[in-house]
Amino acid sequence: MSNRNRVVIAGMGILAPNGIGIEPFWESLLAGRSGIGPITLFDASGLQSCIAGEVKGFDPLDYIEPELKATRMARHTQFAYAATMMALRDAELEITESNLPSPTPIVIGVSTSALDVIERVFRDSDTRGLEAIAPTALGASKPQAAANVVADRIGASAHAATVSSACPSGLDAVAIATDMIRSGAAELAIAGGADAPITKHGVASFIASGLTASRNGEPERASRPFDLSRESGVLSEGAAMFVLENLERAEARGTRIYIEMSGYGAQRDLDPDKPASGLRKSMEIALANARCTKDDIDYISAYGPGDPALDAAEVHFIKEVFGDRAYSIPVSSIKGVTGNPLAAAGPFQIAACALSIRDQLIPPTANYQIADPECDLDVVPRRPRKAKVNRALLNVRGLGGSASSLVVNRVFF
């Protein structure tokens, strides 16, 4: 363990409801400006909830080469590809054999897969017959499609893999890629998460499960993490992809380094009657793997989806892990701005933590107004906070009981 390679983020690409690109995403988080609004991707007028966090102003043809035929791809695949190309540019890398060594793992977390393509297949077959199904639909609807498209663009040196573990999928994908570099199996990897669940049947399913708020009249205030008046989370979409690199290689290239990946832990809920109970163990494992103590954590990026039970449960387990010190650690959730983009949630939080460490600023919990006695930590309400942030812990919890935690830090020499 003492000789393990150190792994850093050298490039980021972000497509989020609150902004495309690193700086627009970050500026909106600091301002608490929500990316949630009325659904425009389909006619949602007949649904109980007709709001979501859509990625606005996204034209796949602006990011994807014509020969790749972007319109045949699922929307989440378009996001993943675009975010990957943005991350490579940010890392000052070209798609060449010298810049992307063999093997280059491509690990992408996906939660809901290609709902838009699948719905189109059923719509076309119902209206025009089974012969109307496009021959490209099968490949486009596979969970592996996003990783395959990126790997095909990079070439024979790429190794593609898909992770699907509900909302933690993107964070888990980053952790898997990190371990490959740490062990020496790779020098550089591309990893992150993407999801595009905002389709008629996708949204209807979340409504039926009680997993999306219905503040249709004020969508920008619908996602309210830790607030006493919170109803539920708000469904959203997007992607965040990262270039992960061996620290020595990144230093030799002279590229910018955002953060170091230091510790990861995952645990399913220990008791079905205690939602989010897996977070206690996942946080403890992540801290142990990062070789740091509870006193070393300067900020906690909470999962905080705005769900009454899950927000309170996460606060409870943070207090169990950190004891009295939990009350002195800033804890905020970015989902008041981003909504819940499922597999992209963890990657959005990783990006936010990287930028917090870069700028020494903690993003606020947007829309927090009424204190909840069950969520009585310092949730950084209303405005960003200047603070010393050298090391951060982030949590993600998924439908079905999976929980993952990650510790990231400034690169210490």
Word description of this protein:
By secondary structure, the protein is of the alpha/beta class. It has 2 domains: 7-253, Thiolase/Chalcone synthase (Peroxisomal Thiolase, Chain A, domain 1, 3-Layer(aba) Sandwich); 264-409, Thiolase/Chalcone synthase (Peroxisomal Thiolase, Chain A, domain 1, 3-Layer(aba) Sandwich). 32% of the residues lie in helices and 19% in strands. It is built from 12 helices and 15 strands. It has helices spanning 22-31, 75-90, 115-128, 137-141, 145-154, 169-183, 200-208, 247-253, 278-289, 308-322, 335-338, 345-359; strands at 7-16, 19-20, 37-38, 51-52, 104-109, 158-163, 188-195, 238-246, 260-268, 299-301, 331-332, 361-362, 385-386, 391-397, 402-409. Strands 1, 2, 5, 6, 7, 8, 9, 10, 11, 14 and 15 form an 11-stranded mixed beta sheet that branches. A two-stranded antiparallel sheet has the order 3-4. The protein has a two-stranded antiparallel ribbon with strand order 12-13. Helix 2 (75-90) packs parallel to helix 5 (145-154) and helix 9 packs across helix 10 (308-322). The longest helix is centred in the first third of the chain and has 16 residues, at 75-90. The radius of gyration is 20 Å and the shape is globular.
SSE blueprint and pairings:
Layout (H helix, E strand, L loop, with lengths): L6 E10 L2 E2 L1 H10 L5 E2 L12 E2 L22 H16 L13 E6 L5 H14 L8 H5 L3 H10 L3 E6 L5 H15 L4 E8 L4 H9 L29 E9 H7 L6 E9 L9 H12 L9 E3 L6 H15 L8 E2 L2 H4 L6 H15 L1 E2 L22 E2 L4 E7 L4 E8 L4
Parallel strand pairs: 5-6, 5-7, 10-11, 10-14
Antiparallel strand pairs: 1-2, 1-8, 1-9, 3-4, 7-8, 9-15, 12-13, 14-15
